[in-house]
């Protein structure tokens, strides 16, 4: 099931990039990010209430709060940078560079989370990095 959600994520991310590139024309990138964020906020809280999980908020640990807040700050910074890059660059070049997050995530997962990788996953990571360079150079 995780694969279907991951695939859905990639399809919606692709749509996000194309729709954003069209919608950001003539709009300040920070304002565009704020509008997008409001929509995401409404959708997220909508899902919380639809699934009746709002009652679980009191069960969240202090540690989880800290890391969720830090993750939110990182997301906001990522979106602000992404929208500015998308506004001034070509989507076909911005998006591959943005997807270098796969490579950076694997490095951070190894260093911070001590995750182990197979030679196959390391090769895939190298190929993603090389493919990105080929696409943008």
Structure summary:
It is built from 6 helices and no strands. Helix 2 crosses helix 3 and helix 4 packs antiparallel against helix 6. With 137 residues, the chain is an all-alpha fold.
Structure description:
This protein is mostly helical and 137 residues long. It is built from six helices and no strands. The chain has helices at 2-23, 29-50, 62-88, 91-98, 101-111, 119-136. The longest helix has 27 residues, at 62-88. It is globular and about 50 Å long. The model has no long low-confidence stretch (mean pLDDT 94).
Kindly state the number of beta strands: 0
Q: Report the radius of gyration as a whole number of Å.
A: 17 Å
Structural class by SSE content? mainly alpha
By DSSP (H or I, 4+ residues per run), the number of helices equals 6
End-to-end separation: 36 Å
Listing every helix as H and every strand as E from the N terminus to the C terminus, the arrangement reads HHHHHH
Round the mean pLDDT to the nearest integer and report it.
Answer: 94
What level of helicity do the residues show?
A: over 70%
Largest sheet: none
Instruction: Extract low-pLDDT stretches.
Output: none
Percentage beta strand:
under 5%
The best one-word shape is globular
